[in-house]
Protein 1
Amino acid sequence: MDKALQQEIDQLHAEICQCLADPRRISILYALSDGPKNVGALMESVGMDRPTASRHLKVLRERSMVRTERDGVSIYYSLADDRVIQALDLLRAVLAELLAKRSALAEALE
């Protein structure tokens, strides 16, 4: 693969990872896995104020992780690709395994 193309792909990959690096954005994505929600429903679901939720939704939109659909005066957010939840679940499984190993090490030290 061309080096410039590889660098561009790596940069885009890093941008997606940066987008997922905030626990509040992860919470929003999991909340949207149940189906489309407007900002008010998301605020209630994840316990954020409107400015914070809007800021994180903007980042998720810019990284094409969520899409919007207008219904009258309301804007509904939904996952752009359900596979992002599968990816997050896979990362959580890796985390669970790492924590189990650390726990076993801590028990061995006692």
Protein 2
Amino acid sequence: MTPNVGGIDKILRIAAGAGLIGATVAGVLPVWGYLGVIPLATGLIGWCPFYPLLGMNSCPMKKD
């Protein structure tokens, strides 16, 4: 798995995921807020499974 999530994209994913999970734990959002695990995980790992399908890459690393 070559990293395909980088920079600001990573920060936004982590913030959005943590925000959704936090709002769900606080009772502001219903159970679907736990879907914030997905952007949180992809931000922390640095790889998104949908980017190759869409032909996208926000990581500035060179491809070999």
Protein 3
Amino acid sequence: MNNRTLRIFILTGTLAILAIIGIQLYLLHEAFNDQQNKFSHSVQIALLEVIQKMYKQDAENLKNYSPVKQVSNNYFIVDVNDHIDANLLEFYLITELNDLGITEDFEYAIYNCETDQMLYGSYVHMSDSKHARHPTTSLPTYPNLVYYFGVHFPGQINYVLRSLRIWIFLASVTMIILFIFAYAIVTILQQKRLSELQRDFVNNMTHEFKTPITATRLALDSLLTAPEIQAHSKLQTFLLIIQQQNSRLNQQVERILQLAVSDKKQLPLHKESIDLISVLKQTTASFPKDQDRIHLHSDRNTPLKITADTLHLSCMLFNLIDNALKYSTNQVEITAGLEGRLLRLKVKDSGIGMEIRELKKIFNKFYRIPTGAVHNVKGFGLGLYYVHQVCRWHGWRVKVESTPGKGTEFCVEIPASQPAWNSTATITWFLLRRHCKILTNDGGS
């Protein structure tokens, strides 16, 4: 993902998340106001019912002078202009509020209209009064003066918030999604920066290695052709070892460069029809010291034709065989043959094997199975990654099966480019079929 695409992705995602949050906050605010208005309306209706039942007033008379006044969201005043029986008042308040589904605790107080002094007040726990069906006679009555009473709901906010549980849950989920999105963006940016640093370091390192490797190879070529060196067989042997190791180091550097380029784009492939068995024989010949350990099996003596890039195929096979030889001291079995429409190439060793949890990681770049501070097998962790990349470029599939202590088998599934029978057999079959057809036609005549 390039920088421009990443910036567009981040900007679009951020705007979308902010739009969703803005819409949810707006809807939450509207729902909160609606619930508050609903609560206030329900309380006013309940208070009007209380007055109507206490004083037997007609509903039309109550509408004319509006005795209920809302001072705040949770405080209401009712002007009755009449005496108040606290027993009936508390009973009707509890009854009417319960009937309208308001179960919040409340406190009420009775005031003298002339002095504005509170004469009586009480706090009512609705949870204790749900079953109250008859007024008590223990509370005071005030028949001589004109009074009003006030009702306060201290838990009104909690009541409204409880009615908005679903909205609050959705808003919380949105905030969690926003946090995850922000964390993912930060992680992506960090990984991208680290990947670029790693790629730049690898490119610079490998290019810096190319100069001394080339200079060393030229010097070795000159030394090996010198008459003085050719006269000393032991010295010539040492120089050949140095030349071999220099070539091996050059191959590793070239491989790293190719993989660094392949991270950005697929390498161009020069595909051609080739014989897999022939390439296998040439590749196994690159291990002269291990010829007695490598066994190549094929179910046919005829060529197995595939369409592939010869160079990358050879390097892939070299990596698979080299990997099997490194991790096994026993025989390495190489099998190639047709199974249906697929050509399966298998490289099997009877070495140390791998745990199941490691099988998903071995094709990652620079990954090597942890062995603590001991590194008996040398390498960069690029061989199997290169194998996976070559298979991906060609549209092949690579699978691995392994058992700790018993060995590992790599299987590359390749679509066969043509039937793997020999041309002589094909011609013979065609001639026999034509001859039989001629005989059949003659007999019919």
Protein 4
Amino acid sequence: MTALTDLTLTAMQAGLAAREFSAVELTEAHLAAMAEARHLNAYIVETPEIARAQAAAADAALAAGTARPLAGIPLGIKDLFCTEGVQTTAGSNILKGFIPPYESTVSGKLLADGAVMLGKLNMDEFAMGSSNETSAYGKVISPWKASGSTRELVPGGSSGGSAAAVAARIAAGATGTDTGGSIRQPASFVGIAGIKPTYGRCSRWGVVAFASSLDQAGPMARTVADCAVLLTSMCGYDAKDSTSLNLPVPDFAAGLTGDLRGKRIGVPKEYRLDGMDATIAKLWDQGLEWLKAAGATIVDVSLPHTRYALPVYYIIAPAEASSNLARYDGVRYGLRVTPPGGNLADMYAATRAAGFGKEVQRRIMIGTYVLSAGFYDAYYTQAQKVRTLIARDFEQAWERCDLLLTPTAPSAAFAFGDKADPLAMYLNDVFTVPASLAGLPAMSVPAGLSADGLPLGLQIIGRPLDEAGVLDAGLAIERAAGFTARP
């Protein structure tokens, strides 16, 4: 019999519905697997007692015929989502010991649908990072290793704990957040699926803010269908979030077909970078052939302002972070450091110096600089204007195509320490940032392996609110790729 933790989320749903196993058995299998995989450091906090109670409630609901769609499904919650009564730190020392008295809208929706919370997943501090090395609670280690190597690899970031947990079979699925690629890039690095929906599809209420005009929650799971199931539960209007879209939520899983007849797939020429890894270029071409076989037509498109996406992102995101993170001052909650004989200003400075890590401090400094008098118009205003041009590029592309296909990341997972230079690290987001700036739905699907035997993902970008189209193209790639490799 297949180990319970090896089942996909949809297979778990079917097994629970058929009473082939209980929610308690499924949860215990995951808790045991978590204990054996603690060396990965995927979880900051484990919640076994909460999980067991939720599993027992799911079994009772299944027996009574009142079960919700996710009844008994064991999930990990990224530590950016506030969870009532359970520590939430955003991977930062400045929030160590913070116990929220409320539940984020997204995690609340999942729990209301019967999901079981296994714990809070590790992440880059305040979601700032592409390798999960900036967490105050230690780095997350990918369950993958390159062929013939024992070096520890990064799981990607910032949702590295979510990615590692799903790939290592210590969560059936997980919540992630994506500001510039933080769902899609780690999904690519560990060989799982992950989707960032249209900005506003999932409520940001109760999610610790990094860059408010970019942050968007989404699911990470092992298959496209699993992501579709979770996305249906996570989406929906929330009056507590002023950017939430008041629109009906489709049953994304029920609408999956993988049939792309009549669809036009765009290939943005600007994504063919000089010196692109030959394996990734070949996989991209293979992905286009797979989509053509599923009935799609391939067309060339241009997104001329793509070259400015990274600099625009690394002006706007730090600026918003500088503003959002000003609330962490040691006065109301979290860490407080009071120097002997110091005044209030000394306490602010000492608390923030001790509470924030180097990458967070770097981005606060950049953000404060670009928002300062004399530089606001030169940097921030200009970046917002170019962001509008980037969004317009996509609008013009939709006149020629329905979806775009690109690589997810410029490389496979790398070893810890290989990208010590911040600029080298920021380049990991080169393919994912444009869709974030435009607020578009985008998904990474595992499609092949690098020369070193490490996962590589392909990215599908869709029109606003066309998550269904993105998922269908993802399913077509998933079926054609037949990706079965595992750590």
